[in-house]
Amino acid sequence: MYKLDKKDHILLFELDRNSRQSINQIAKRTKLSRDVVSYRIKQLEAHQIIRGYITLIDFTKLGYQIVRLYLKLQNTTPEIENRIIQNLLQEKNIMTAYRTDGKYDLAIGFLVKDIRIYQKTYERFLQKYRQYIVEKNFSLFMDFIQYTRNYLVEKNIYDYTALSTGSFQPYAYDTKDLELLNALSTNARITLLQLANHLHMTPTGVKYKLQNLQKNKVIVAYKLILDYHQLGYEYYKIDLDIEDLSIIPALNEYITRHPNILYRDITVGGSDFEFDGEFKNQDDFYTMINEIKSLFPGKIRHYFYYKALKIYKYSYFPQTILLS
User: Fold this and answer.
1) What stretch of H or E contains 277?
2) pLDDT recorded at residue 323
């Protein structure tokens, strides 16, 4: 495991805040020299602590919605489970696919323009594998809110910005916008010149489109893909069922300011309050749960969680968008 120091953590924090920052901008913010910043980033990439740089897109502005499906399996073997997963991965509208440890075995995310498209996909899947499904849960995302990995740095430089991807305000996009978003989706640090060559446009034309996408918040942010395992962390997804829904604003304030919480999911058909985080170990996770119980005594009916064991797919720009 590559040993990180304080300067590495600050660099990761800055790239998690805005992975499209230039080397000069990062050097200014971190008070490190340009050469030191460049060298350390290359080292973090070489050791695959930095796995990539992605663009956070509000797909609702393009007319899409996220559908989540949880599955609990029964009477399977490793071979059957592999067939189930491979079958799901062939679907072009699947955005995410996780193997999980907890209440459910699989967590699948679909990106669709029409809920009927999801239903047809799901029905095809059930025709083959219904006998192996003992429990399922389906929900629609209304918003997916993302926070900064504040656990990387000291409290005095925490960034409490909350990034929403659920505006549902249509944006009049064209084919070149989609090509630009696709190119940026898995390489947020790509240069304007590279984008211009890829899109067969002038750099000025690309810059204009990029600024429009940012101004209209189709592009919400540029983020970091971090191998949290190499930092000694585990990924947890937590669902709370709440006795008194009036505590939701206070709960939201709590997770916004908690350094280990990365996401909040606002859903129809899911739990009352859902969020995700990266924790050092299960003890740290339970410390957070017990703190919530203490802050809101008698208000949390129960909770369940899962740990992400394996990511089979995480597409930042599903193929279905380019085919529509």
Assistant:
1) strand 273-279
2) 65
pLDDT value, residue 204: 96
* Cβ–Cβ < 8 Å for 148, 14: no
pLDDT higher than 90, residue 62:
yes
Beta 273-279 vs 94-102: how paired, if at all? Answer: unpaired
Predicted confidence band of residue 148 (pLDDT cuts 50, 70, 90): very high
DSSP type of residue 247: G
Domain ranges of the chain: 1-47, 54-171+216-324
Residues β-bridged to residue 224 = 53
Domain 54-171+216-324 is in which class? alpha beta
Tokens of 12: 């990761």
Look up residue 187 and give its DSSP letter.
Answer: B
Determine the Cα–Cα distance for residues 76 and 82; give it in Å rounded to an integer: 10
Strand partners, 139: 68
1-47, CATH topology level: Arc Repressor Mutant, subunit A (1.10.10)
Number of H helices, E strands in the chain: 11, 11
Q: Tell me, what's the pLDDT at 28? A: 95
pLDDT at residue 285, rounded to an integer: 96
Beta-carbon contacts of residue 191 (< 8 Å; ≥ 6 apart): none
Residue pair 238/303 in contact by the 8 Å Cβ criterion: yes
